[in-house]
Amino acid sequence: MDKSTFQPYEEEIQALEEEIRLLTEKYEDIQQESTLFSDEEILKSIKSFQNETQEEIRGNESDLKAQLETLATSLSFLMKFTGFNFTSHSKKTLEKTRNKTVQKHRLSGRCHSLAFQLEFQLLEMQDNEEMSAVVSDLSIIMESRKDSNVSKFLSRTEEHGDLLTFFISLSTYAEWYEHRRNTFLHFK
């Protein structure tokens, strides 16, 4: 056999041997660096890191407690101001893509003395930097559907999916409903 036939293999073997030698040197350098630190120094560094992390957690925890208290105070104020008291809320994601999310919401609560339940789908779409939301399949259940005016209003609201109008109108209606009820109780 000709020596030229084995030449590429010999060159490959030499290249691999050189690579092995370089990697061995690199490994030995790393080993030397790691032996520069004693076990005691490594343990001190670990304890120092743990202490710093725990202090950060304690600081964040107190900040979170303060924020939670502030939110609870704000929620209490809003409940007194609007008369709304939400008792339950559930959300289920039906579809999610990069720029579109469809969620089904169920919400129940009271506004003054009137109980209500809502069920609706919320379609959120993002175009560039703008976010838009559309309410669909709105269903409203209330005790006062017996009143024909309220029933008509709720039907129109369900058709248009207008939650803002519903909450504003319900707040006003429930407040006056409470006044009427108290007045009639006074005369009984």
From TrEMBL:
GO terms for biological process: CENP-A containing chromatin assembly. Keywords: Coiled coil. The keyword tRNA-binding does not apply. InterPro entries: CENP-P (IPR027801). One of its GO terms (cellular component) is nucleus. The keyword Coiled coil applies. Residues 6-33 form a coiled coil. It comes from the Eukaryota. PANTHER family: CENTROMERE PROTEIN P. This is CENPP protein. It comes from Cinclus mexicanus (American dipper). The lineage of its organism: Eukaryota, Metazoa, Chordata, Craniata, Vertebrata. The gene is Cenpp.
